[in-house]
């Protein structure tokens, strides 16, 4: 591990983080037999479980890539064999078992969205059940940022807590931004409506706020990766030379936004900051050969970063070495 380089991004707390066993590729497992939407990796004495929440396909909005002509953006998606003029976005939360704790990282779109989309999204709970994970057994829920596809699963369809025994931990900077309606003037058009959703989602919940750069669960360190939202964080799992980045929404589909890191997604509230964050994280992952799990990467959503011209590409894998 290159401590100086990582310290510049993660802060000294990341170097001190301990307690999470290193990844053990010899024990990586493939998808559960007969189960779609569950993928497991052994994680030292613990485990990473990807639980697919679903996907949505929709016509590309005119400003989906804010700084690129729509025809050019559409061609990039068509080159990935998506239907002409359409965009597909996938959603993949995680459950991590480490240090005697069961930890969810983001919560998917939620059961309300499951009903509204006729099962297209909101499948996290069903796939948790298929994986044998009871929501009541979850000790900690870590939230990367406050967009609805990440916090929607905090509550059941009737508004009761989905993880009744869990401590919900959120980035302090994210909480400060979205809970102050005066900040609506600082939000771009795609984000202005999110303030009401945040208020509704967290009503009745009492989350714990954390500062980026701190250990937030056994062996899991939060990393400030702003731009997509002001308080957006990613997470570094593991210790020593074997670490893994869980990158939240640093990028959307890797086939488009990793290859074109200068393209600005309409949902990135501070596009230039998001671009700088993207390059910084992927340069680190590339230099250290650190695998990355992406919330919006095609499922199962782990891979390694390689340089591709002036951008990057993701080499997806089914084992983490």
Structure overview:
- This protein is α+β, with helices and mostly antiparallel strands and 321 residues long.
- The chain has one domain (3-316): Ribonuclease Z/Hydroxyacylglutathione hydrolase-like (Metallo-beta-lactamase, Chain A).
- The protein has helices spanning 3-10, 12-16, 70-78, 111-116, 124-130, 148-151, 172-178, 194-202, 254-257, 271-288, and strands at 38-43, 46-51, 54-59, 86-91, 94-98, 101-105, 140-142, 167-171, 208-210, 215-217, 220-224, 233-239, 242-246, 292-293, 302-308, 311-316.
- Strands 1-2-5-6-7-8-9 form a 7-stranded mixed β-sheet. Strands 10-11-12-13-14-15-16 form a 7-stranded mixed β-sheet. A two-stranded antiparallel ribbon has the order 3-4.
- A hairpin with an 8-residue loop joins strand 14 (292-293) and strand 15.
- It is globular.
- Mean pLDDT is 89; it is low at 1-5 and 11-34.
CATH class membership: Alpha Beta
C-alpha termini separation: 14 Å
Radius of gyration: 18 Å
* Total strand segments: 16
Runs in which pLDDT lies below 50 for 5 or more consecutive residues are 1-5, 11-34
Q: What is the subunit arrangement here?
A: single chain
SSE sequence, one letter per element:
HHEEEHEEEHHEHEHHEEEEEHHEEE
Strand order of the largest sheet: 1-2-5-6-7-8-9
**Mean pLDDT reading:** 89
Query: What is the domain tally?
Result: 1
Helix tally equals 10
Protein name: MBL fold metallo-hydrolase
GO molecular function, one term: hydrolase activity
Keywords: Hydrolase, Metal-binding, Signal, Zinc
Signal peptide: 1-28
């Amino acid at each position: 591990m290159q401590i100086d380089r990582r310290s510049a991004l993660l802060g000294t707390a990341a170097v001190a983080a301990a307690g999470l066993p290193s990844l053990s590729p010899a024990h990586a497992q493939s998808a559960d037999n007969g189960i779609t939407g569950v993928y497991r990796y052994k994680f030292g004495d613990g485990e990473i479980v990807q639980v697919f929440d679903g996907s949505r396909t929709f016509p590309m909005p005119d400003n989906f890539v804010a700084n690129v002509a729509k025809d050019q953006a559409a061609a990039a998606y068509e080159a990935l064999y998506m239907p002409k003029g359409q965009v597909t976005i996938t959603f993949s939360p995680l459950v991590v078992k480490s240090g005697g704790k069961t930890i969810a990282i983001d919560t998917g779109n939620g059961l309300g969205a499951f009903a509204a989309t006729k099962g297209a999204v909101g499948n996290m709970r069903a796939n948790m059940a298929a994986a044998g994970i009871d929501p009541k057994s979850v000790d900690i829920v870590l939230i990367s940022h406050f967009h609805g596809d990440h916090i929607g699963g905090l509550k059941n369809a009737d508004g009761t807590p989905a993880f009744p025994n869990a401590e919900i931990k959120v980035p302090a900077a994210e909480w400060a931004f979205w809970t102050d309606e005066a900040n609506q003037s600082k939000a771009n058009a795609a984000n202005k409506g999110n303030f009401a959703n945040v208020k509704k989602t967290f009503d009745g919940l009492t989350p714990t706020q954390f500062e980026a750069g701190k250990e937030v669960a056994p062996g899991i360190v939060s990393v400030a990766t702003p731009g997509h939202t002001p308080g957006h964080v990613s997470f570094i799992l593991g210790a020593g030379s074997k670490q893994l980045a869980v990158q939240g929404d640093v990028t959307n589909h890797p086939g488009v936004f990793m290859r074109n890191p200068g393209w600005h997604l309409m949902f990135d509230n501070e596009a230039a900051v998001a671009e700088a964050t993207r390059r910084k994280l992927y340069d680190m992952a590339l230099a250290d050969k650190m695998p990355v799990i992406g919330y919006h990467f095609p499922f199962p959503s782990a891979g390694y970063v390689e340089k591709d011209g002036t951008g990057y590409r993701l080499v997806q894998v089914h084992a983490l070495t």
